[in-house]
Specification:
heterodimer, A: alpha/beta, Ubiquitin-like (UB roll), Rossmann fold, 5 domains, six-stranded mixed beta sheet, 34 strands, B: alpha/beta, de novo design (two linked rop proteins), 3 domains, four-stranded mixed beta sheet, FMN (chain B), 4Fe-4S (chain B), iron-sulfur (chain B), Nuop51_4Fe4S-bd_sf (chain B)
Chain lengths: 898, 422
Amino acid sequence: MVRIYIDQKPYDVKPGKNLLETCLTLGLDLPYFCWHPAMGSVGACRQCAVKLFKDENDKTGRLVMACMEGVRDNMYLSLNDTAAHDFRSQNIEWLMSNHPHDCAVCDEGGSCHLQDMTVMTGHAYRRFRFPKRTYQNQYLGPFLHHEMNRCIQCYRCVRFYKDYAGGKDLDVFAAHNHVYFGREKDGVLENEFSGNLAEVCPTGVFTDKTLREHYTRKWDMTMAPSICQHCSLGCNIIAGERYGALRQITNRFNGAVNGYFICDRGRYGYEFVNDPGRVRQPVIRGEKEGRNLFESLSGILTGGKLLGIGSPRASLEANFALRRLVGEENFYQGISENEAGLLRKILAIQHSGHVYTPSLKETEYADVTLVLGEDPTNSAPRLALALRQAVRTKPLENIAGSNIPLWNDAAIREMIQDEKGELFMAYPVNTKLDEVASGMLHAAPEDIARFGFAVAHYMESSVPEPEGLPAQTKESARRMADLLQKAERPLIVSGTSLFNEDIIQAAYQIGQALEKAEKKAGLCFVLPECNSAGLAMMQAPSLAMAMRAAETGEFATAVVLENDLYRRAERSEIDRFFNAFKNSLVLDHLENDTARKATVLIPTATFAEGEGTLVNNEERAQRFFQVFMPKNEHIRESWRWLDEFRQFREGTKPDELRELDNLLEELVNAMPQFKGAEMAAPLSDFRINGQRIPREPHRFSGRTAMLANVAVSEPKPPVDTDSPLSFTMEGYRGMPPAPLTPFYWSPGWNSGQSVHKYQSEAGGPLRGGDPGVRLLGNAVHFSNGFHSASPAAFKRQMDEMALVPLTHIFGSDELSVLSPSVEGRSPRPYIALNSLDAERLHVSEGAILKMRIGDQVFDLPVTLKNELPEGLAGLPYNLPSLSGIAWPAKGVLTNATV
Amino acid sequence: METPLTQHISFDRPCYNLRDYEKNGGYQALRKALSLSPESITNTVQASDLKGRGGAGFNTGMKWSFVPMNGHYPVKYLIANADEMEPGTFKDRMLMEGNPHQLIEGMIISAFAIQANISYIFLRWAYKKAGRLLTHAMEEAYAAGYLGKNILGTGYNLEMYLHTGVGRYICGEETALLNALEGKRATPRAKPPFPQVSGLFGKPTIVNNVETLCNIPHIINNGPDWFKSLGKGNDAGTKIYGVSGRVKRPGLWELPMGVSMRELIEDCAGGMANGYRFRGALPGGASTDFLVEEHLDINLDYKSVAAAGSRLGTGTMIILDDHTCPVGFVHNLEHFFAQESCGWCTPCREGLPWTEKILLSIERGEGRPEDLQLLETHTRLLGPGNTFCALAPGAMEPLQSALKYFREDFEKHIDQKKCPWR
C-alpha cells in the first residue's frame, strides 16, 4: 500500500495502478472516456485531468491525466482544484461542440456515459456557434446501428475491436476533426464480439440494432441477472423486458467468467423468447375440449410408468423435478450415448482433481496453450477472446523489466509489437484463432488425438508413443511438449466438439504429465450446451439406454423435458422410440419436431420467464432469474409444472411457497454432488432491511398508465415466490449481492460504466466475490477408467467419407439461431471437402453433392477446404436443416448430377 | 566567420558528389569516429553542447546517452527527421539539397555512437529534389563502403533507408514519425517511455533533426571546444537562420548561434521592403510566439528568446508587416494547425478548429466581443501538458502573443464589423 493525498485527504491505495482507477476504486467521481478497465489507458480523451502537486508545499501544481499517471507514495493531487475542474468542463464542451445533442431520439439516452460525464463536469451552456460537422453512417450488419455524428472520438471502439478482439474490418479513417470510425465500406462487421461495441462506445455511435427493433429506455426495462444459454461457458448477462417482450441482453460483469465482454451469439441470440412459434397453450391431442388440464392429464400422470428424458438446455431444477416425477431409475439424459460418454469422461477427469480446471478468467493468463480438437471461436466464443489475450501473456512477461506499467496500453503494445506467446491449434480445418497461433495441425479427430498422445509421450515416457506418426507431427509434438514443460502456466483446451473420446483422453494425459512434472497446468473442456455439465453430473443413462428401456414396453408415457429428440438421433429411431409409448408428455417453450409428436404438449418458460441453475464447463453453478412473469398463465417453469405433476401423482397438496428453494434443497439432499448449488445465489427469503431487490430502476415510467387501455386501476404487481427480487421499482436501493444484481446504476452513473461501483476495486472482482459456486470439490465417482492405449490412425475409406462436425457460432446452437439477427449470420448448409476428394467425386466449389447418412439424404453444395485431410468431409454442426445426425458419423457422397 | 554547415554548399553548381565531398574533407570525421568508442562520441557531442535544431533545443549528446548500451538490445535505430513542415522553415531542405553527404556522414557517426544498425531518413514528400539527391548520395556511400556491412573494415554495419512521408505536419513530432514509419496512423505517443528506450518497432531509437545531424561530423573533426567557440552567447555552434516575409532579401544564413534579431533582419535580410513597416516576427516558425519591435536587440539563442516570451524553434523567422492583417495572419496559421491535428486528443482536435472558426468570423466582421475571451481561454487550456503532444500548445503561441501585442487590431475587427485591411 502507498499513501496518497487527494484534496488533502490521505488514502492508502494499491501501488501499480493509475490515478484514475485508484480514484474510481476510492469511490471518487472522476470523468473519463478513453480508459477502459479491460483495455487500459491511452491518454487520448484528456477528460480525467487532475491537479498534481510536487509535494505538500506546492500550491501551483500542474494538470495531469489521471489515467496516464501511476500511483506513487506521497503523491498530492486534487480533483476539486478549479483549474482541473475548468479543464474537464471545457473538455466536455469541446467534445460536445459537434455532438448532435439528439439524446431524446438516441438509443443510448438514459444509459449514456457521455450524458453522465457531461452532467458530472457541469458543462451546460453551449458557446460553439458554428455549424457542426456531419458524417455518413454505414450499414454494419444485423447487430449494430451506426450513427457517426454522435462520435466523440475516444478511440475505444477500434481499440476493442482491433486490439482486443482481433477484428480486421473496423478502423479509424481520416484525421483532425474529421476522424471516422467505421468500415472501409458498408458491410457486415465480421468479428464475433462486435456487439460489445454497443457497450464499449460511451455514446450512441454503435447501438444494439435488435433493441432498436423494439426499443425501450434502460430505465423502462424490467431487468434480472441471468446466465447466457447459448454455450457451456455460462457468461453472466443482464436481460431486460418491457410489455412482455425480451428487449435486450447486456454483459453482466463476472470477474471469474466473462469479465466485461460477451460474444454476439450471447448478446443477440435472445429473440427466440419472443418467437411467434412459442408454445402458448397446453395441447392435448385427441382430447375433447372443456376439460381442465389436470383432469385430462390424470390418466397419464396416475396410470402407468413414466420414463423421463432430461435436457442439457434445461436447468438443474427442471431436470431434478423430472427425475423426482418419474423416479431416479427411470430418468435418462436426453443426449446420445456418445455425447454422454464424452461428458462422463470429462467429469471423471475434472472430479479426479488430478489436473486443475481453470476459470475462464484464468485461461487469459496461460503462457502456453494447446487447443486439441476445438474451434473456440465457434464452440465457446468467449474462451477464444480469452485465448487472444493469453497469447500476450508471455510477451508481457518478457518486457516486465522495462518498467512500463501494464495499464499503459499503447506503450505496452508498442513494445510487444506482433510478438505472441505459444498457442497451438489442432483442428481439422482452419480456425480464426490460427492467426494468433504459433503452430497448427489440420488433421482428422483420430490424428489430433494421436498428436496429443505424442505430446504426452514426450513429457511422460510411460504414455505409449502412437505408432507410425509422420516425422513432422512428431517434431511438432516434441516441440509442444518442450514448450508446455517450460511454461509457467500451461493450458490445455479440449472438448466434445469432435465427438472423439481419445482427444479428451489425450488432453488429460498431457495435463497429468504436466502435473507430474509439478507444473500448474490448466485443463479446460468445452462442453456442448449450457447445462451439459449439470445434466451429466446427475449420472443418468443416455438416450440410447432410454430407447432400450422403452422397448421393454413397461412404460406408458415418455416425459420429455425441453429437448428436441429429433436433433439427437436419426428420425426413424426417435419415431420408433415414441411409438413404444401410449402417451408422450412434452414440455418445451418452442414448437419443434418433438413438440409436434407429443400427445400432450405443455408450454414452458424460457430462461427469461423463470429461475433456474446451470452448471458451466468449469462446474460453476450459477443462478439465472426470472426477468418477467409471462402474462400467459399457461407458461410456467418446467420445474414448476413437473413438481405439480409429481404432487398430483402422489396426491399431495401443492406447496407454492419456497417451491424453488425446496427443490434445490431436495436436489442437494438427493445428489450431494450438487452441494453448493443452492448457494449460487441467495434464497427466496433473502431481504436487505426487510426489502426485496427491485428489478425495475427507480425511474421506471408509465407503471400506472401502461395498461390503462385495459383498466384504469393499476394491477397488483406479480409476487415473486421464488427469489428475493421484486417485479417493481420498490425495494432496496443500495448495492445488492453480486448474484442478485439486476442492473448497474449509481447516482450520476446511469450507463453500464457504473459497474466499477459494484466492484471491490475498479476492474477487480465484484463486491462480496464474483458469483457462482464451483462444484468441483464434491466427490462424485464416475466409473470410466483412464485407459492409456493410443488410438489408431485415421484411415481413408473409399466407400464412405468420415464426417467431421464443424461448429458455427451462428447456426450450431439450437435456440440462438431462431433470432432473426443470428439466423442472418448463420451459414447455409454445405459440405466441405479437400479438392482432391472433390476431384474424385467430379465436383467443384458450389456443385451439389448428395449425402446419405443412414436413411437420411441431404443435398449439399460443396465448399472446398484444402486443409481438410483427404477422406474427411466437414459438415456444419447442428444447423436446423442438418440436425438429427448421430455423431460421429460417416456418409456416402454421390455427385447429384450423375 | 566559420560556416561549417554551409561551407561546401553553393547553388551556383550541382551539389558535391562523393568524390568532391571526399576531396574537401568528407567522411574524414567518419573514419575518425569509427576509431573511437561509441561512448566517447556521445560524450564529445554532449560536451559540445549541441542542442536539437528541430525546435525543442534538447542537448543531443544527452539524448543519445539515454539509449541502453548494455548489449541487451540487438536492434536499435537512428532516424533523421527530414519532415520539415514547420511553416516558414526551409533550412533542412537547403542542407539536403546543398550537401546530402554531410547528412549521411552525420547519420553514420550518430548511428555508430548509439550502435544502431538501421537508419532511416524520414523525408517530407514535397522535397522531391532532396529525395533524388539523397538516393544518389546513399548509393555512392554504399558503393564506397560507408554504408552496408563491415563499414571501412571496422565490422560495424549500418543500413540506411529513405522513407518519404505523405505530407503531415504531425510527422515532424518524433513519436508520430515513428508510428508513421511503422505503417500506423501518424499519432504521437505518450512519453514515457521515450523513444530512446522504446522507439521504432518498440526498440531503442534516436530521432534527430537534419541540421542537428549535419553538425556531428564537424564536432568530431574539430572537437567540442571549437564548436562551443562558434556560438556568440549562451549556445554553441552555428545556426541556419532564415527570414521570410516582406524584407528586402528573404533567405537563409549560417550565423553564429546567438546573433541578434536586428542583425539578422537588417544586415542579412536587408531590412524591411520599401513601404513596409516591421510589426512583429515569429522567430522560429509558425509555432512560436510573436516578438515585436522592443525585442529587436535580443540574441537569437534558446535562453534569450525564451526570456523574451517566445522560442528559438527552428530559427527561421516569419515577419509580420503593417500591410498584413494580424488576424488574417493568425487565422491562416490556425487553419494550418487545425488541419494538421492528428485527431487523437480532444483539446487539439476540437479546440483548434474552434479557434480557427472564431478567427475567420472575426476576420469576416462577424466577431463578437466575447470571442476574445474565448480565444484566450483556448490559448490557456491548450497549453503544454493539457494536450497529448506539443502541436496544439505550439499552435497557441502565435495566437496568444497576437492577442497580447495586436489586441487593438482584433478589437477593431469586432467594433467595425470588418477587417480594416480590406
